[in-house]
Amino acid sequence: MSSFFELVGFGDQGWGGALLKGLWVTLQISFGAFLVGMLIGLAVATVKLNGPRPLVRVAQLYTTLCRSVPELLLILLLFYVGSMGLDQLFAWLGYGGLQLDGTLVAIAVLGLVQGAYAAEIFRAAIQAVPYGQIEAARAFGMRGRALFLRVTLPAMAPHALAGMANLWVVLIKDSALISVVGTNELLFTAKQAAGSTRHYLTFYLVAAAMYYLLTLMSNLLCGWLERRFQRWMPSV
Amino acid sequence: MNTHWIVEYSGQLLDGLGTTLTLLALSAVLGFALAVLVALGRMSRNPLVAAPSIAFTSVIRGTPLLVQIYIFYYGLGSLFAQFPLIRGSVLWPYLRDGYWYIAVALILSVGAYVGEVVRGGLRAVPRGELEAAAAFGMTRRQVLWRVRLPRAIRLLLPTLAGESVLLLKSTALASTVAVVDLLGAANVVRAQTYQVYQPLLLVAGIYICLTFIIESGFSLAERRTMFRRAT
To answer: Which of A107, A122, A199, B189 pairs with B119 at a CA distance of 20 to 30 A?
Structure first.
């Protein structure tokens, strides 16, 4: 029977280093998926608001699909289909035998799911921007990218902040699902540690504590950001 | 496209659907009851009641559901297995089955997430209506059960629809602890027929239908309980 500190410490019997590495992978996956989700979300929100009809249909299909199918199922589906498809693509391009990085697949899959939720948040945020501001920018001769980057994006950001903060925390928690397909993030590492030492409760509680610290710190940071953004919010 | 597996495994898929639905109903009903208690606890002026409710909400909402499920199933499960008294008891067949661990995890989860929602709803009930109820001579408990809670639920129906869909999606985690729910059934088919994505696609379609049914159910309930909004 080894003590708690030997188990989660950094000695040769300890799993501390492995768990921290898992935490780092979890952070990589979460950050990556957040960025991918934001880009997809912005694109889909723009399409939904003023895209051509058929594209709007596709966007709607995408958001309903991702929002009503369990994330775990999407992960399994996209992981198998995605890695199979990418393998075939690589083989066809002449890069056969290229092993797909689990982290990258995880980022792609979670990002795709995130995008559906982010799209709804961005759509609401864009609609919250007073139309006069966009008209004014147009009157100044701004169009396309300049209009978006200099006026729409800064004006919508405070409205999207709270929603995106929520999504970020949801994403950290959803990243644990990736452990099911065997990418060595935090929960997967905890699972290995629990299995090989037979101290299940210890390692799952330690993993839970690490996730909790992560979400707690995120919430504090988001609260601070929100207070800073308050000054740019139009007074109601 | 090869589809004869659907007939062959239809029994298992239907069983899986049944498991998913009972899990959903069980955790929705018991979870909602817990959520009301948690909401009332958080609003309590007594810190001995409020603090545990706040801590409970924070911890459940701050950690992944999958980790909570592992803590219950593998953690507590392996702990229970060490006691011959529990192992030999009539409860053991139940304590070994992942179903009840998942059910408990989902109930706690609904209690925490919906607890916050219910709290917002209870606070949104117009004061005048509560005062009117009190003026009729209702006790505080009567005001809560007859006026405040029903009114809050009506206000929250759209949010509760969303939470129910999220709960439906959460039930799919049952398949991670060897419970054959809808997704679990798809995994069984996948393992036995080597059909990689067809069973998953079929089950995804069923989840979409269930989501649609939940959402239409709630919007029907919304239309059936119209009331005049206080201005």
So the answer is: A122
pTM: predicted TM-score of the whole model, two decimal places: 0.88
Please report whether residue A44 resides in a domain. yes
CB B32 within 8 A of CB B40: no
pLDDT band at A236 (very low <50, low <70, confident <90, very high): very low
CATH number assigned to the domain covering B4-230: 1.10.3720.10
Neighbours of B204 (CB within 10 A): 22
Domain of A178, CATH number, reads 1.10.3720.10
ipTM of the complex: 0.87
Q: A189: how many CB neighbours lie within 10 A of its CB?
A: 23
> How many H helices and E strands in chain A?
10, 0
Q: In chain B, what is the straight-line distance between the N-terminal and C-terminal CA atoms, in Å?
A: 58
- The single-letter code of the amino acid at B94 is Y
> What's the confidence (pLDDT) of residue A2?
64
Shortest Cα distance from A11 to chain B (angstroms)? Answer: 24
Q: Count of domains in chain A?
A: 1
Closest by Cβ to B196, choosing from A80, A172, A208: A80
Of B71, B169, B173, the CB nearest to A204: B71
The answer to whether the beta carbons of residues A48 and A123 sit under 8 Å apart is yes
Confidence (pLDDT) at A155 = 86
pLDDT confidence tier of residue A100, bands split at 50, 70 and 90: low
For A128-174, the pLDDT digits (tens) are: 888 888 889 889 988 888 888 888 888 888 888 888 999 999 999 99
Probe site for chain B from A30, A201, A221 (most B CB atoms < 10 A):
A201
Q: Where are the domains of chain B?
A: 4-230
Kindly report the number of other CB atoms within 10 A of residue A187's CB atom: 27
Residue A231, class by beta-carbon neighbours within 10 Å (0-12 exposed, 13-18 middle, 19+ buried)? exposed
Between CA A12 and CA A9 the distance in angstroms is: 9
Q: Is residue A236 part of a domain?
A: no
Q: Where are the beta strands (DSSP E) in chain A?
A: none
Residue whose structure tokens are 């309980």: B225
B7: region left, alpha or beta (phi > 0 left; psi from -120 to 50 alpha): alpha
Average of per-residue pLDDT across A90-109: 75
Interchain contact B204–A (C-beta under 8 A): yes
B68 close to A (CB below 8 A): yes
